[in-house]
Fold these 4 entries.
Entry 1:
Amino acid sequence: MAASALVTGYYFVLPDKLFKDPYSTVLNDRNGNLLSASIAGDGQWRFPFSMEVPQKFQEALVLAEDKRFYRHPGVDLLSLGRAAQQNWKAGKVVSGGSTLSMQVIRLARKNQRRSISEKLVEVVLATRLEFRYSKKEILALYAAHAPFGGNVVGLEAACWRFFGRTVSDLSWSEAAMLAVLPNNPSLIHLNKNRIKLKLKRDRLLERLAQAGKMDQLELHLAQAEPVPETLLTLPRLAPHLLTRAIREGKGENKVITTIDLGLQQRVTQIINDHHQQLKANQIFNAAAIILEIKTGNVLAYVGNTASGSKNNEDVDVVMAPRSTGSILKPFLYAAMLQEGKMLPHTLWPDVPTFINGYSPENFSKEFDGAVPASAGLIRSLNIPAVYELREYRYEKFYDKLKTIGLTTLKQPADHYGLTLVLGGAEGTLWDITGAFASMARTLNNYFELPGKNRYSKSDFHPPRYQQTEDDKNKIIEESSWLNAASVYLTFDALKEVYRPGENTGWRNFSSTKKIAWKTGTSFGFRDGWAVGVNPEYAIGVWVGNADGEGRPGLTGTETAAPILFDLFSVLPASGWFQMPVSEMEKIEVCQKSGHRATDLCEERTQEWVPKAGLETLPCPYHKKVFLSADKKFRVHALCESLTKMTEATWFVLPPIQEFYFKQKTFGYRPLPPLRKDCENPNSVASMDLIYPKINSKVLVPRELDGTTGNTLFEATHRNPAATIFWHLDGKFLAATRKTHKLALNPTAGTHTLTVVDDAGESISRSFSVISTIK
């Protein structure tokens, strides 16, 4: 019974978990290179346990500490006897005779006060240790928990702190130095004991040479290596990703990421180089990620700038919800194409607009009357996008954005309304870049499967910063959230690098690298976005101030796009996306309207469109008209004989669109006017200007506080529901409904006031501001 109890006690005497110390969180790149690490909870640099112990360190350690390590059962009786004899002769403890197994036990027991009883405990536990673990595992336990001076614990942390590299790269000299450090505390102060440490290391190197581990040349070279002068700082690449990994429950582990160390370093440098220029305009923060299209793996992750100026640089902007500006417009463009609600170049209104009290404006504050959908996307015009969203319905677009990966739409769809496509919602660089990458992945994968079913909705997934196995059980379907044809045509539009209307050097950017790219700018110049894709990579860039402060000139084109193209320049060249012809049809399209051509369309072109585009309406803008013999006037059967009328086709825009379109479009021909005898003699003007009258002279008053006052201009309209659009000297000012009054403060001189109603009727009136009352 006593023997049984003794055996049972011996079996359970060793704790299940030897070491309960907290560990550092270590972030490695895809090849095992160190990116960043956090200090452990107890203030020590202690990397997570690893079985990787380099052979050179094993050889040096065993020779220095326990030369019969592989032959004893945890206790070396010869060493213990020799140590006892040495201690008796010296009259004090000069040698412990501990094996490496006993040293592991002592480390686990937190270096208890040395005594005979403690030594007996170590002996018992060391033998039990040998039953549970292999010799290789015992060496790994020692290497992971041995002290190497200061707050450096474990071989891996020591390699980085002393030499700035991984354990696998240790030289004989470095391995020998680290082998003699743990049991020689007086040697850990590099500045004080470098000579003593070198002598100790060199003696061990000589023993290694005598044991046949190296030849004489290797010995001389190893002894010639200097001892480090000071501890090194650990790398701080991807610090925001490290913090994120800890926040997501990966703390105290070694996290192997998909990051490429070399690319991460280059991206960090590019971000910081641009930061030096941006901070001159008090723009302090920027972020970027690079994704591999095929897998969605993150190749580079720069969460913020790192200049040391303490301008909210700890904020991980990659994951911070920010106003999206125009960066979501490509998703709407693709969705409209997929559902056959437009063709790539369908005309959309670009006029002063009021929809249920909402009045969107273009960035330029100007209007083109009507623009092709593709041009509206390239130029990032807001008003055409709102008309598209109204046609598509914002509730559907809200659901679409969620399905393709936006996780920040926390409010119901009605909360955002039509502003959803103009920055009314928030998004993260992570989600948005991931959605662009998912679109590209869907288009690439479309060609991998033959037949009818070519899609997997699982191709739309968030980016990944840790390697995962490919999903071998993909559900293959006939369609996806966005199909290949709509994605291809969207990218085809976005690859146009010439951006009309943007005063920037990027309009002349030329490169052999084709890139589909889009910028975005939030209201108040708070966020600058740029996202670009090709078949291999997706890059997302954000620029701004993490605290939300806006700055003049903080636009996606001026701040984020230059970074985007610098990042693409360091990536390998890529081809272009393959056209999914089997999902498209080549049809005749009216060149002027972008709609399906009719017999009335004089200028037509052949164009590839999604098959759903066959359901779109034919061109509504080309009409048949009848002209007088000289073709100067429109006539009809009530005022002209049929034999004298000339039939013609005419491209006719709605009146309000035509008013702006003809100002911007050279060669646009308005409809000829009705001949006077063909007009209705009872017709009267729908509106009039009450003030100012023709050639009025206006005085602008001053207020009681001395500031310049306003002059009230007024118009009237027969239709109480009509909207009147006010322009001064050709510049749009505002729109009024019901009560048509506008307070203005024009400068001295001659001006022209123009009012236009929503039917296209207009009145222009000149007036003079002769002075202001002083």
Note: The radius of gyration is 38 Å.
Entry 2:
Amino acid sequence: MDPAEPIDDPIAELMAVPMADPMAVPMANPIDPALDAAIARDSARGRRVAAATWVIAILHGVLGFVSVQQAALLINVDKDLATTVEVEALGSTFLAVRIALVIAVAVGLALAVRWLRAALPTAAILAGLGAIEGEPAVGSFSRLSLLFRPAGVPAERATWSDVRVGGGRKLALVTAVALVVAAIVGVTGAIMSAGAGNIAEARLARWIIGLDAGLWLVGTLLAGAVAADIAWRIAAAGRAVGHFAPLADAPGRPLIRLAPALLVFAGLVPVAATAPAAQNVPCRATSLQCAQVIVPVDHGGPANQPALTIVYGVHRGSEPVRGTLVVAVGGPGASGLASADWIIDTFDPKLVDAYDIVFWDQRGVGRSDGHDCPIAGGIYSTVEPTETSARAFVDACLNEADTGSTGLARFATRQAAEDLESIRDRLGVEQFALYGESYGTELAQVYAAAHPDRLSALILDGSVDLTLTANQFWAAAARSFDATLSATFEDCDRDLECRRDVSDPARVYDRLVARLERLPENISYRDMTGQLADHRLERAPLEGAVASLLYEPAGRALILRAIAASDSGDDVPIARLAGLFGPGISGVVSTFAYHAILCADYRVSPTADSTDIGAVVHAGESSQALTTRTRDVYFAQLPCLYWPDQPASAERPAALTDQPEPIFVLGATLDPITPIEMGRSIASRARDGYLIESNGGPHVTFGRGNPCVDGPIVAFLLDGRRPSTRTSHCPDVVASPYIPLGPLDASAYTDALDAMTSTEDELFADPMYALWGGDGDLTIGCRFGGSVAIAATGQRDEFTFNGCEFARGMALDGSGGFDLDDNSVRLDLTFQGGSLRYTSDTTKHVTGTFRGHDVDQ
């Protein structure tokens, strides 16, 4: 530098002055104003840098809590998933915090660089003045070391009142190590999170990222301590040469700085580690403890994919329990959770006490991503099954269910079976007994084939033979429905009351169907609201209602009674059946799920053309399914020809032949939808198979109170005892006892006992009450006006009559009840001109006033 050149920078000017011997500099001499300003400036900037580290540390802490919370949310997730929508949404919510952290780090680094560039020359001057220990440094790196040397009044001249700051190399080294470790751990966590292939790896990665946030918090606060230490070292050096630096600016020990932050962080981690819902969810079924598990849309697909929430419930047995029984309900499309209460009521109490019993809503049903299209289903049930109507139904159903037309393969039974495996894993159960009814036997067999080591017993009730193609299954079902209907007609001839009301029910039914085929009719009757209106009676809803009622002996008795009424010229009962049971599949089954599951499981077209309806019709003709009264049953599969995401192949699963667990197959000879031949085939192929066959009987026979059916299953589940024979035959009925037709006009009653007997008959012959399972309250409409409210209270049904006219001209008010334990009925009724008290058990008795006379019959 030219000595004659003017110097504008005061610090540079000071540095250009030759330094005297530092030992000769009097510490109390007045300080140069430029140096005083530089010391004040650098001390203030250092404090700002230290303050910035607090902001960075807080942001690191927040993101650490988010990672810990994400790890907690992953606790109730299928083992093959790596993330969920909730986890990703939580991370997205804190995107602003991440951005703020990046900005804070950038600002902090900029402030630190600006501060250090200015502070290094100041430190060099102070070192030259002897206020910083050691020789003055030359070069940037050497100057940087000045910031970590002891500073203040030289040790040999310091008194008790002088300020002297020790060296900062050790703190700087610890800080550097902490930051390097945090960086390494952070990179490790990020790599693990990005490459996580299952939930365990993802959870570990989130915990590591949360731990890393703690490390960054420590490292950042230590960096702040280093910055505060440097700032105070410059200030202390300045005090040694006459600069005023308040002692209140002196930083505390790093431990004092770290301790509160670490305590808060450590204290909040357990809070963040607790999942908000802790897995438990509200449950509709009163007897269940419900929870949920998050599963992949496509089991076997990538670890990072969309997910579904499956809700399941457990009915806890009495301690100590002997095992776990899982119930797969039918449909497909029925809700396991909604069915749980009444199914448990049908089970042997000893079984309920000894087992934890598990129900769940299958994907696509109820609370497990449930969808439905009841309007589309109701319309489709009233029209002829054709290509046009089936296509229209598919479009309308998908639109109503709001699922789109892609990705529907996710509803396949193989996916639902893996959902069950996820539930088992969440429950921590090594083995369990699996009971499937109707469609549930399909799911149970698919699960058994995929996870044979997980089952202690497989119970199939109303079994579907999975080796059959769609055309083979529905052809067998159509023939079976026809056989059950014929057996129902034949059963009437064995009942005196039925034979008296209708001599040839088959002829009456065929004549009615032929009549409606030519011209639908309008039938006037009061609906469930009590309103009198015309109701259209058509062939398709009638046949649909008959098919629905054939599942149960009680339904078969209703068919006979309605046919008998029609034979006498009264079409109201048959029209009511068509109106109640003709629309849709069932009130408890999702129409969408029914088709989505079947169409994902079966390829209907037997040719390469997925919409080849001609080939399907030809197969039906060849199997003689289309020559039956119930030929429309065969066409239940028709919508699958036009359903999106059909299976590419019609190949069927292999039969279960060598399962390690015993297989119990239950079936009835008059099961319309799953013919007994299917159950026989499954049992005969199984290495350890047992068939319990009911003569007559309903679709699904377990829990009906028949000890011949229930006994062997309960004996095995409780005591491990197998049946003595591979095939057992159990007695059952074709139809429930026939209820004779009563007078339509009260004037036709012969006496009070006839009036009350007919009232009892009409009440129990009402189709809604006859098929009611006792779930919730029920109100039925009476033929000529008014209603009866029915409430189930334990083993008793309570009746409340409100102007109920089963017969014209006799409106009944009052109450009564039906005791299920002893099959006794009690009625206390009033009506215009009289009141009667009626009891019915082994005998019938009535007292009171009837037609102006006291009676005791």
Note: The two ends are 135 Å apart (CA to CA).
Entry 3:
Amino acid sequence: MGHTYPGATVPFGMVQLSPDTDTIPYEQNGKYNPDVYKYCAGYQYEDKTIVGFSHTHFSGTGHSDLGDFLVMPTVGPLRLNPGTADQAGSGYRSAYSHANETAEADYYSVMLDDYHIKAELTTTTRVGMHRYTFPQSDQSHIILDLIHGIYNYEDKNVWTYIRVVNDTLVTGYRETSGWARTRKLYFALTFSKPFEAYGYRNYTRRTAYHGFWGKFNQNRDFPEIAGRQIRAYFDFHTHQGEAIEMKLALSPVSKDNALENLRSEIPGWDFDLVKRRGQDAWEAELQKLTIEGADSDKVNFYTSLYHAFINPTVYMDVNGQYMGLDKEVHTAQGWTNYTTFSMWDTHRALHPFFNLIEPERNGDMVRSMLAHFSQSPEHMMPIWVNSANENWCMTGYHSVSIVCDAIVKGIGPFAAGGSAAGTPGGATAVAGGAAAGTPGSAAGGATGAGGGSGDAVVGAYGAVAALDACVTTAHHRDYDGLGFYMDMGYIPSEKNGNSVSTTLEYAYDDWCIAQAAQKLGRTDLYDEFIKRSQNYKNVWDSSIGFMRPRLSDGTFRKDFDPLRTIDQGFIEGNAWNYSLYVPQDPAGLIALMGGNRRFVPHLDSLFTMDLPDKYFAETEDITRDGIVGNYVHGNEPSHHDIYLYDWTDQPWKAEALVRMILWRMYKITPDGLGGNDDTGQMSAWYIFSALGFYPVSPGDDKYWLGSPSVAAATLRLGNGKTFHVVAHNQGPQNVYVQQVMLNGQPLHRLYITYDEITSGGELVFDMGSRPNKKLFRP
């Protein structure tokens, strides 16, 4: 479970270099192959063979792409097909053993048993470095597979190109159409030792027209290789114990930029120096939070911290150039462009975590989202972004949550007293005037002059322009039922398969817009969107006590099972889960459900009821060990559920449940996550909850209290201050909070604020084995 990979990467690195253990096709006989889901990250711990090492991966997603530029060293007769795992020697893959496998921060090593080759990997932000220690052989090869990919199918490769510049330097690109519909990635590859010969095989089926290239023998020692399905190879003679190193740099813009990235980031051939610098970069990140506690807690905590710093990923060359959503080259001046935004997941805790620990980096992520808006032909903020492509995956428009949370908290381009100069994507400055005439338009005040390579530069009113971008998105009537939502206050069931969950998510995002509007003094927008944020009530069926699909005529759908997810109006959750998805207004939800007397038993039952297997049998990423009652921790819409007890008269129940989830869903095993990490969201939930507080509703300034699992922690905040957490009398049985002190004074409420954390100070919990039901918590 979890779909993570064990390879080498630096924090937020564009190169994520990792072993891939099989080549499962996305489809078989014209139908989806369900086994492919196991290979979202390319690596399966249970597999016995490795097919090679590719340079791009997703960490913990429930869908996939990438797996670019797979490299595999071999000896003996040349094989250019990976073969199959059940037939030894059928291809270039190799058996391996976990006993001879090492995974560290920015370092991976394994012995390829079939070839007696030791493979070692390390990286910089944009370059992967390989070291292969060969046996003596007159038939040593390094294969470059441009067919290989993750979630592969026959037509995924649009085109591949290789140019052999000399006997140590190779450049090229691959263009694919997958989850990212139009994606082009360039590379520059150099070897530490000249190759003696090279060649390739084109596996493309013969086309009606193929030009006049038959004048050459292209298969061997021909410097220009092109086709849709290419595998190339480079031949060497090696003596026993000889190490051949190679460096492969990536660029989203050009081969020249890839070569510049290579020469800038790894100019020499000191593998151990690159590894050491990468590990120093990880140490600098991981030192931003230090904890005291049991060894098992430390392993889980720092594993989560590691995962949290993998994504989003840098998507920009060393010269500042990046490929935009409009397929034009742009230049980020004074900021870093990012991609891999799984915002349906990460808006909940990962970006709020960055606001504390990495506010400037998160500010650049916000800039990247606004750049996306400025380049979007649909004039929308991003939904799920991969490599200058909008994937339109999942529901809601949760970049709005991230941007509005940054506005409310004054993060990055919206810092108090600062200028947003350099921030891309002002609504009135770009997008063809799409925001003109919309409520909350900047009326010219936010319009900036062009800067860089076509990027808009928003002036001192950057927050206003960012709010306009969010409003423009929220007014996009053609997107995923938004027109119905705006006109009717809900999405009719017969118009949208996820009508209920999408209605609820829109309502939360609208509340975020209202909070940013209030911060900026935009009363008109605040009134509009705070009203829209109450639309959750329109899908509440009081007769059964659940959120329920509603038809266009206003009646509720009759055939309805609150335990089912498929075809019930929800995505990654059922009515039991989504009826609690009102993070913007828990008090209103509790009142709607009948107050504490009815709400608390309902919430209790979520964790204690029995959910029969049939209700999750069709769900790829959910298994029995990832479920507590009907609470599915791996499905992110439930991540705030435990903390809803803080709005009731029995808040101590949250304390015990938080500790139970920390123990049950995060284990020190290869399959230790109770679901996909989803590019860091599961890990961010762990980090916050282990510290004793959690952001239930990003967009406000509150972090709600739970039960810390650490004995002590120090947060080195992005503003240079420190915030300490101490848990006295900590232990596996002492899960209940007896008293809370903030900066030496008793805390008589269930939350702390953003300003209280970022001002520095100390939060002290006294723990015990029994709930303190008299603890004053109004």
Note: The chain is about 25% helix and 25% strand.
Entry 4:
Amino acid sequence: MAVAIVLFVLGFIWSSWHKDLLPPERFVVARGASAHQIAQQLRRQGLIWHPWTFLIWVKLHGKTNIRPGVYSISRSLGGLQILRVLRAGPPLVRVTFPEGWTSKQMAALLDSKDVTSGADFLAAVGKNKREGFLFPDTYFFEQGLAPSQVIDRMVQRFHEKEPKDMMAQAKALHVSYLQIVTMASLVEREARVPQERPIIAGVFYNRLRKHWRLESCATVEYALGGWKPQLTYKDLDVSSPYNTYRHMGLPPGPICNPGAAALEAAVHPASTDMMFFVADGGGTHRFSKYYSEHLAAQGVTVKHRANGNAEQ
């Protein structure tokens, strides 16, 4: 009898020590899962020995605060400790979205961090027309969220960060609320230095007032499905309502998700008589009032670029 007890104790010690050496187990609590389902899943994954012991702890402490999500649970934890982990909630994941990213880029990052399904996120963004309203910032998300939860957080942040007079300014500028966000997305993709954002916005508004095509290379890149270091003249002919070289006015919607500075520039553009701008190859732009000046500026720029490339 004494030998059996010793063997049992040694076995228990070895088992506990062995479990400490194993990596944490990924455990998912599905939304709406019952305590019984959670207990069974814990048993199947080898995190507890008996489901009923976990259910006793749930009975004593309540399942109400068990939060759905993705957990990393150490195999050395007991049933009560696991319950405390599940009631504390899943760990938060830091996710940073740079200004000017598209929802497609955001979806890939969210998917890679197990925050939500990238495909489902993209589908929800498209269905609800949220491109442009997903505010680029640093977020702390739980894993295993529904796409709508992620989108709602980002849209809420957008409304918190948008200029307070955005609606009024849209009316004053004779554009809709959506169009001013679209303008901000163009500014975000075209500008390379902060001081040029309001000027670029001013140029685009000037061209809209004169019923000129905007001829924004950024809209062509969006139509092509990705950003390119340099466009060709063939690219400028792509058939898409987003191609502002072929279509008048603003594109149908935002081409990226603009940050606060781009929104501010779109809402408060510079008062300027400039009508053209062209990248100078050094990160800034040359602005021109007259087409002849613009051609001269392009001539300076083209010397530094390969034949067949186009520049605004």
Note: The CA atoms of residues 66 and 169 lie 46 Å apart.
